[in-house]
Design goal:
- The chain is an all-alpha fold and 553 residues long.
- It has 23 helices and no strands.
- The longest helix is centred in the first third of the chain and has 35 residues.
Length: 553
């Protein structure tokens, strides 16, 4: 046990990268900014959950709220777990260094699982924390409720993370063959994400088909005790045990449900160790090896490769090619910019009643409803979607220790910063244009509305990417051991997301309070964010070169 704990600490420190004492205050400020940015989101969730509890209490089905929360959290943990398992178990490339140490396979598997579990607790904290506290306050929960809630919080991520780990291990074991290791890693990651999304669509379609009519839903609820809870938790049956344990916490029956939930978690972890010991090491060995292709280059092709370009264009092309050729960067930066706008359609199209729902949304977005508030919502969505693109906010961090090679290149600091932000601008522009095209196709938006929305795209994309590169210049993460750490385990990405979330929320709230028309909203947003873009640009021109020079190992 001591070896597992010690190895877990080492892996977590390595995942966090090297820290500078001089930059400790920056880390504190980032954490404070993230906490402040999450306050509006948490308060909104509390208000929503409180109202939902009141509605369910009227029909005696308030336990369904717990089942819903645990089920949603489990599904999210499963989906994120696939990415975390790929990162911690495969992309870290440290297994070959750990094997010669006096560690058993169980020690290595357990430590890596705990590292992934720590990341999942952050997801559970966002999804389950407000729910458990709100339910406890509304239901008047006592000491035993909060004690049970703590145990449930610690146990919930284990089962979905085990499911994600087993899925990835089996897949990587039987597909990670041949000499093209990087290609197989990329294909494995894409298929794993596709499987998770397919599972989500299946769940969404099944749930929507169970409630084709209000009468059927009402009949199901009143026909049995906790009928709504049974429906919600049918795809994660263990979630029902957690909900029932919390429903009447402190009673003998609730202790039985809690013990059963604990046994399920422990049994799943045992299965993980057995299967992992059988398949993991065979699938991960040699994954860091690469194969070079020997290819004859003709005179014409050679001249094309060495043709003269400007410094800005050359460095931009270098950054662009690295984004597409590095699996971790391709999955988390390039493809996410293209796939995320498409994935927002899944919850809508997966429903049995998708046609009726789309028709209802079209009716809402016609006429006056497609005015200022509609444009504000679309603009806020642009900001949030852009903040989810980690290309610009990791542009410096992605270089790692190789960043210092940039100081030897014949390119000025201003051109270097611009070349690093251009890929993010291009990818963010593609994201928002795809999202706008989807909205125009599904919602049949008026031409005037689409024109104003397209014009507002420009300053929103500039704002997010300029803010992202400024954040990474001030606080780059260069001490990483794998490319995955530079983009997935980088606090800068979370900070940029908070900025986008807060900015988008303020835009919507301000427009709702003012009640501005479409013309006034479009003009106001365009002018405001052009000014913000100009201020950030001037800041980068004045301070950016100095920030680059101050970056140290």
């Amino acid at each position: 046990m001591n070896k597992v704990v010690g190895l877990t600490k080492v892996l977590l420190k390595n995942a966090g990268g090297t820290k500078q004492k001089a930059s400790a205050w920056k880390t504190v400020l980032i954490m404070i900014a993230i906490a402040m940015g999450m306050i509006p989101m948490i308060l909104g969730a509390v208000v929503f959950l409180s109202a939902l509890y009141d509605g369910l209490e009227l029909i005696g089905q308030q336990a369904a709220l717990l089942g819903l929360g645990v089920t949603v959290a489990s599904l999210a943990i499963f989906m994120f777990g696939i990415l975390y398992v790929l990162s911690v178990f495969y992309y870290s490339q440290d297994v070959e260094q750990l094997l010669p140490l006096p560690l058993s396979p169980g020690h290595i598997l357990s430590a890596k699982f705990l590292v992934a579990l720590v990341y999942e607790y952050l997801t559970a904290l966002v999804l389950l924390g407000p729910l458990l506290i709100t339910y406890g306050v509304k239901s008047g929960g006592g000491f035993f409720y909060y004690l049970f809630a703590l145990f449930i919080f610690l146990l919930v991520p284990i089962l979905p993370l085990v499911m994600a780990a087993l899925f990835v291990m089996l897949f990587m074991r039987f597909t990670n063959v041949g000499k093209s290791k990087e290609r197989f890693r990329l294909i494995s990651g894409l298929l794993a994400i596709g499987a998770a999304l397919g599972f989500q669509m299946f769940v969404q379609r099944q749930v929507s088909s169970k409630a084709d009519s209000i009468e059927q839903l009402q009949q199901m609820i009143v026909s049995q005790e906790n009928g709504l809870l049974n429906m919600i938790t049918q795809f994660f049956p263990a979630s029902k045990l957690a909900a029932l344990a919390l429903q009447n916490s402190g009673t003998l029956l609730s202790w039985g449900f809690l013990a059963s939930f604990l046994l399920v978690a422990l049994a799943s972890f045992g299965v993980f160790l057995v299967i992992g010991n059988r398949f993991y090491f065979a699938g991960v060995m040699g994954i860091s090896e690469a194969v070079a292709k020997r290819k004859m280059v003709g005179e014409a092709a050679f001249q094309k490769l060495i043709r003269e370009r400007s410094r800005l264009a050359s460095y931009f092309l270098k950054e662009w090619k690295i984004l597409w050729r590095t699996p971790a960067f391709l999955l988390n930066c390039t493809l996410s910019s293209i796939l995320v706008p498409l994935l927002v359609l899944l919850p809508l199209l997966a429903r049995e009643d998708s046609e009726k729902l789309i028709a209802h949304l079209q009716s809402l977005m016609q006429g006056e409803q497609a005015g200022g508030i509609g444009l504000a919502i679309v603009f806020g969505a642009f900001l949030i979607l852009g903040s989810m693109n980690s290309t610009s906010v990791t542009a410096i961090s992605r270089d790692g220790q190789g960043f210092f090679y940039n100081k030897t290149l014949p390119i000025g600091p201003g051109q270097l910063i611009l070349a690093k932000v251009l890929p993010g601008l291009l990818l963010s522009g593609i994201s928002v244009l795809v999202l706008l095209a989807e909205a125009a196709w599904l919602l049949a938006l008026p031409g005037e509305f689409l024109l104003f929305a397209a014009l507002c795209v420009i300053p929103s994309v500039l704002f997010i990417n300029l803010a992202g590169i400024a954040i990474d210049l001030l606080h780059p993460k260069l001490g990483w051991g794998s490319e995955q750490e530079a983009v997935k385990q980088n606090m800068n990405t979370l900070l940029l997301f908070m900025i986008g979330l807060v900015a988008g929320g303020l835009v919507v709230v301000a427009n709702f309070l003012i009640g501005a028309s479409l013309w006034v909203t479009a003009l106001g947003l365009f002018v405001l964010f052009v000014l913000l873009d100009f201020l950030i640009y001037r800041l980068l021109v004045a301070k950016g070169p100095g920030w680059l020079e101050k970056i140290e190992e």
